[in-house]
Structure formats: structure tokens, C-alpha cells
Amino acid sequence: MARRGFAVWVTDVELGIAEPVIEGLGSECRAAVLDVTDTNASRALADAVVAEHGHLDLWVNNAGVLAVGYAWEVDDASNARVLAVNATGTINGTIAALAHMVPAGRGQVINVVSLAGIVATPGQAVYAASKHAAMAFSLSTLFDLRRGGHRGIDICAVCPSGVWTPLVGNRIDDPEAAASFTAPLLTADVIGRVVGRLTERPRPVTIVPRRRGPMMRFVDLFPRLSVPAVPTLMRDARRRQQRYKRLTENGEWP
Predict the structure, then answer these.
(1) Which DSSP string corresponds to 219-248?
(2) Checking DSSP bridges between strand 9-12 and strand 30-33, what pairing results, if any?
(3) Is 64 exposed, middle or buried (0-12, 13-18, 19+ CB in 10 A)?
(4) pTM of the predicted model over 0.70
(5) How far is CA 211 from CA 15, 161, 183, in A?
(6) How far apart, in whole angstroms, are the C-alpha atoms of residue 44 and residue 183?
(7) 165-213, pLDDT tens digit by residue?
(8) Alpha carbon distance 110, 39 (integer Å)
(9) Sheet bearing 58-61, strands edge to edge
(10) Vertex 87: Cα angle to 111 and 133 (nearest 5)
(11) Which residues are catalytically annotated?
């Protein structure tokens, strides 16, 4: 984003995590603390950007957390956190950005969702529910913008397969997280480039890798045909997970 001319504001719940990201990006780039589950904090951040730069061109909702296990065994606190960060956090950020973009008549919100926003995932029931909520909110908000005549504002949802971040890497030994390994893992750089391209050519939904789209759509449309294949799918995902563990231990990944 910085190479594309944006004054980037990087946020995290811990300032010490956000600050190293902006090193070398230019004097206009900032690091800030943001808890995406806090509605007022999201609005305050958007206000601060506009106060400093006079406008808000792009907002990327990228925060996400994961809880895994059988749906009836995951504890209430974990489920609440997943919904608060993944669903409510996306809603908070989008609305905070639109509060400035709608009066200005221009802007873009890019929500990094997940393939779990397209199709349900075993072992990640509430995570998938939160991502379905984020997807529905993104598209419904885009529909509302067009319904209201706001054609200069875009909402884009990015739906990647597993991405090598702590969300996945910290669960490389956990069989309950195997669904995140059903496809070759992506890196954050890959998703960054996808987001960058969307600033030039917005699309309502972008699946990464694109070839996964037809398969996920099929599973979503015909669950009766897909359910019997789940045990086989999970065994294959577990083998992939173990392979990534070996690659990581050998220094061959990422």
C-alpha cells in the first residue's frame, strides 16, 4: 500500500506489534492501537486519519482469531471472542470508514474474510459462522451503497485459503485445526498483493487461489453430496498439516 502511494496506518491491539511494520514506509505512515471489537475506537481511528490527512481513501479489515474443535466442545469465551473480532470487528471498521466515505462520495473498504466465508469448515464451526457473517455484511453493505446511489464507494471481500500467520502456524500440531490445511498455504505477501490490485480493479468477491472457487461453491450448493466426504477430506488435510510441520522444522517453510 505504501508503494502505491497510501499513507498507511497499521493497527493492532498491541502497539509494539504494529510499530515495526511501518519502519521505512515514510513519515506519513503511523502505528496505532486498535481493538476492533470496540465500536468507538474504530470510529476514533477513522476520525484521526481524516483529521490528519483530510480524507480516508481505503480501510482494510484484516483482524481475525480462530477457535477449533467440535462445535459443542469449544468454550463460550472462545466463541464470543471469535464472533466479536471476526464479525463485529469487520462491521465496526466498515461503518467507521463509511461515516467519512459516504459524505465524501468516494472510498473503498476491503474485508479480508476467508474461504470459510464461502463454505462451512469442519472443526471451525463458529469461525465459519463469523466469516459467513462478515461476507454477508460486506455484500449487503455494497448493495446498500448502490441502492443509495453511492457509486464511488466499493466494498470488496477477499476469501483466501489458509494463510501462514500465527493464526495457522500456532496450530500446526493441532489436529482440530487441520481444515486450515486443505489447500497449499498462502503467505501474507500474496494477500497483500491481492489487496493492492483490488485498489485498482475492485471486485465484490475475490477467492484466492481462484481455482478453489468452483469447488467451494459446489460444496456450498450441495452439502448432501459433500458431507460423506468430510472424513476423507480431514485425513488428507491432516497429512498436509503434518507435512508443513516437517517443512517448518527443516527451515524449508515459509
Answers:
(1) HHH-HHHHGGGHHHHHHHHHHHHHHHHHHH
(2) parallel
(3) buried
(4) yes
(5) 37, 11, 11
(6) 38
(7) 999 999 999 999 999 999 999 999 999 999 999 999 999 999 999 999 9
(8) 18
(9) 58-61, 107-112, 153-160, 205-208
(10) 85
(11) 127
